[in-house]
Amino acid sequence: MTERYVYMDHSATTAVDRSVLEAMLPFFSEHYGNPNSLHLWGRTARKAVNQAREKVASLIGADASEVIFTGGGSEADNLAIKGAASTRKDKGKHVITTAVEHHAVIDTFKWLEKEGFEVTILPVDEKGMVRIPDLESALRQDTILVSIMYANNEVGTIQPVAEVAKMCSDRGVLFHVDGVQAAGHIPFNVRDLGIDMLTMSAHKMYGPKGVGGLYIRKGVKIDPLVHGGGQERGLRSGTENTAGIIGFGASAELAVKRLADGSIREEIRLRDLLIDSVTSSIEDAYLTGHRTERLPFHASFLIGSLEGESMLLRLDAAGIGASSGSACTSGSLEPSYVLLAMGISHELAHGSLRFSLGKDTSEEDIVYVAENLKKIVSDLRALSPLWKNRG
């Protein structure tokens, strides 16, 4: 039996915090009214939804009126991109994104291409970062939208969002940011950054699954995806997921406290301890992404001559939950498109691992993970002809 259990996949999802769950529970039964109803039950629900909206807005420095609740981060990405492209297609049909975006963005841009839009995919450097000169060269008179993520889910690299926002603003181009990995983990203010739209997801910050949000700067107009009763300023019709929204608000409130109390500094210390431990104790182990401009809880690696899937299975047997940047775990034999876009070879990209820490991760957890990974790599390499026959 394994000595302990260590969950290190917080980039995939987080546990609902106890305080968040307690805030949600009354809205499943006691306060079950439809927030669009005028009676006492409805008014109680509406008041709670409004308060949650204020909490989410406060997290990112927005006004409550600028936050739209959705069914998750992917829906929010779709609403932002398709909605903005629809309202601006008469001004131009050129849109820009990057080669390392989440599928919710990449696939939405592919859909736009089928609808007659011209899509430019920006390359990234070896750290997964967009080069500002590349964006400057790609912008045209008919460019109507740029979408670049705040931080990458696979390699953790934080993009130069403020510089991109300034460049887009100077040229009158709308700028959308997929902030799903960043919101609640990095302190930022959408007004200071100059962002037009920003996507968020509750379950990435100790809230419930199935609820997300989209910040839309005042004055920005987009078309809805879902039509119906006109909820969420007419941009996302359908009866609100009241309990989920309350949970999102509570998780945003928790995030504000964590960003202010030094918790992030401790996450960075533990992240760096893991990075240093792995790269110093395992031969041919490399950090992926930027060394410092990265998510505070994110450590991702390439392990030479091994498959990510085999390491994941051994880690799981040791009670460690992690993930691989390789798509093999989803049934594909192809390595991660993010890693390939960073110039990493197919062979090396197959050996990717991602560890993402949480608010309850301890130094003992980090030591346990590093020690087990070292042993797992050693055991697997003893069986690997690639390792035995290397250079």
Strand order of the largest sheet: 2-8-7-6-5-3-4
Average per-residue pLDDT, rounded, comes to: 96
Fraction of helical residues: 40-55%
Shape annotation: globular
CATH topology of the largest domain: Aspartate Aminotransferase, domain 2
Name the poorly predicted regions.
Answer: 326-330
CATH architecture of the largest domain: 3-Layer(aba) Sandwich
The SS-based structural class is alpha/beta
Number of domains: 2
Biggest sheet architecture? 7 strands, mixed
Strand content: 5-15%
Structure, described:
- The protein has 391 residues and is α/β, with parallel strands linked by helices.
- It has 2 domains: 18-259, Type I PLP-dependent aspartate aminotransferase-like (Major domain) (Aspartate Aminotransferase, domain 2); 262-388, Aspartate Aminotransferase, domain 1 (Alpha-Beta Complex), CATH 3.90.1150.
- The protein has helices spanning 18-24, 40-60, 73-88, 103-114, 132-138, 161-170, 190-193, 242-260, 263-281, 308-317, 337-341, 346-349, 363-382, 385-388; strands at residues 6-7, 67-70, 94-98, 118-122, 143-147, 174-178, 197-201, 212-216, 285-287, 298-303, 320-321, 352-356.
- The strands form 3 sheets. A 7-stranded mixed β-sheet has the order 2-8-7-6-5-3-4, with helices on both faces.
- The longest helix has 21 residues, at 40-60.
- The chain is globular, with a radius of gyration of 22 Å.
- The two termini are 38 Å apart.
- The model is unreliable at 326-330 (pLDDT under 50).
